[in-house]
Amino acid sequence: MTPVLIVFAYLALVVYIGVFAFRHRPGGEGAEDYFLAGRSIGPFVFLMSLFGANMTAFAILGSSGHAFHNGVVTFGMMASSSALVIPLTLFLIGTRLWALGKKHGFITPVQLFRDRWECGHIGTAIFAVQAALLVPYIVIGVMGGGTTLQAISGGRVPYWLGGAVVALVVMSYVFFGGMRGTAWVNAFQTTLFLAFGAAAVAVIAAGMGGFRSAAESLLASPATAPLFTRERVSPLYFFSYSFIPLSSIAFPHIAIFCLTARRMAQFKKTVVLYPLCILALWLPCVFLGVMANRAADMPELRAKQEARRTLAAQGAALDEAAREDLRQQMRADDVLVLLLNRYAPLWLAGLLGAGIVAAVMASDSQILALSTMFTEDVFAHYGGKARFGEAVQVQMGRLFVVLLTVLAYVVALRAPASIFELAVQYAFSGFAALSPLLVAALFWRRSTKWGALAVAAWTAAAVVAVAAFQYAVPAPLAGRPTVIWSAGGWDVLARTPGGTSLLGFSPVVPMVAGSAILMVLASLATRPPGEGTLRRYFAHR
Amino acid sequence: MSGARRFTLALAVLVLYALHQDVWLWRAARPLLLGFLPVGLVYHAAYCVAASLLMAALVRFAWPHGLEAEVDRDAPR
What we know:
By secondary structure, chain A is mainly α. Chain A has helices at about 1-20, 30-35, 45-55, 55-70, 75-105, 110-115, 120-150, 160-205, 210-220, 235-240, 245-250, 250-260, 265-290, 300-315, 320-330, 335-345, 345-360, 365-380, 385-390, 390-415, 420-445, 450-470, 510-525, 530-540, and strands at about 480-485, 490-495, 500.
C-alpha cells in the first residue's frame, strides 16, 4: 500500500500547487489572466510545461505498451520524428502565433482564423472540429489515471476509482488555477517524469541483473528477436508516422500555450532542448517496454505474451469475440508499472509511480484549452462577454471545465481501445490534418475562409470515415492485412491489425495531403480577404 | 538572412528529415551498444541529438528578429 500512499501524497501536493500556490493574482482575474496566465510565463516553466502538455499518458504508458508488443520501432515512429518536427513547427509557427497574439490580443487559434480570413461561422465550424478531436485526447488522461493507479495498487484501487481520482485532481487545479496553476503543475510534473526515466532504467536494470543477458536472450528467440529491429513494420507505414507530429502545433492547447510566453526569446531554449527532452523520456520507456518481454518471472507479463502467441497461432480458428478477449488480455499499457512493482523498493515504486501519474495528468492543458475555446470562440464571439461581462465569462469557463471532465470520465469507463490506438487513430491524425490551416493563415496571402472550411470539413469527414471503416471491418490477425480494394497490383485500401492502410500509408498521410490540396484549390477558386486585412498580416513582405 | 544561408538551413532540415527513414538499418539489431542497445535504437537516439543541434543552428542563424522587433513596437502595453 506504500506506493499508493506516496502517489496520493503527490496528488495532494499537485492540488496545492495548482489551486493555492498560484491563486493570488494582483490586479484581479480577467479572461487573459485566467486563460493565458497574463502572457507572463517565464522560460523554464514555458519549456517544461509545453513539453509536458505534449507528453501525456500516451508517451509513457502507451509507448512502453506499444514497445512491449512491437519493439524498438516505437521510438523511431513516434519519438525521433517528433524530435525534429515538433520543435521545427514551434520555431516556424509557434513564434508567429505568439507575435500575432501579442499584437492583436488573440487568445485562441480560431480568433486568429476569424480575423485573418474575415469570417464568423466558419470559425465556429473549425472550433467544432477541434473540440470533437480534443475530447478523445482528454479521455486518454483519465484512462491512464485509472490504469496506473490500479496497477500501482496491485488492483486495490479499481480502474473506475483511479480514473475518478485523477479526473478530480486535474479538475480542481484547472478550475481554480487556470493557465497559471496548470503551467506550474505541468512544469513540476515534467521535471518529475524526466527524472523518472533515468531512475526507472537504473532500478529495473539492477533488478533484472543487467540488460546484457536479457538482450541476448531476446535476440536468441525467433519470437522476440524482431523486437530489436523494425522488420515487422513497412518503411511506408514508418514514414507515415513522421506526419503525426504535425498535430502538435495544431492541437489547441499547444497553440494556446504558445501565447503564454512573456517574450518570444523563450522559444529559443525550448526548440533547442525539446529533442533532448524527448530522448530523455522516450528512450527509457521504449527500451523498458521491450525488456519487459524478458521478465519471465512475472505472471501478469507472461499472460500478455501468452495471449499474443495464442492470437498469432490460433486466431484464425477463433471467433471474433474470442479474439477480442485475447486482445484485451494483451493490453500492455501497464507494463512499466508492473516492472516497477516487481523490481523497485516500495518507496521508490511509489515515487516513480507518481512520476507516471504526473505524465498521465497532462490532460489538464487540453481541458483548459477546450474551456478557453468555448468561452472565447463561442460564448464571447456570440455576444456573451458583451452582455454578461468578463467575470461571467471566466465562471463560464470554469463550469465548462467541470462538465468536460465528467464527460471524459464517463467515456473513459466505456472506451474499449487501448490508449495508444485511441490517441493516434483519431486525435493525432485529425489534428495533423488541421495543420495546413495554420500554415496557410500565417504564410499564404492568397488563402481564404473557404479553403479553411474545406480543410475542417475534410478532416471531420476523414476521421469519421476511418473510424467507421475500422468499426465495420474487424482487425485481422498479425501478418497479412485484409485487403478491401486493390487496383493494378496495389493494395489501395486495407484493414491492418493496428488500423487502416491506404496505398501502404497510414491514413494520416492522405489526410494531411488532402487538407493541403483542398486549401489550395478552394482558396484559388474564391476571393481572398481584403487588402487591409492582408496588410496587417503581411506588412513586412 | 542571406539567400545562401537560408538555402543551406532549409537543405539541412530536408536532409535530416530524409535521414529519419534509415532503411539500411531496418533488419539490423547488432551491434548492440553497451551490450544491450540495438543499433537502430541508438541511431534514432543520435537523431534526436542531431535535431537539437539543427534547432540550435536555426535559432542562431534564422531567428525572426524582425517579428520580435515589430511586436515590441506595436504590442499594446
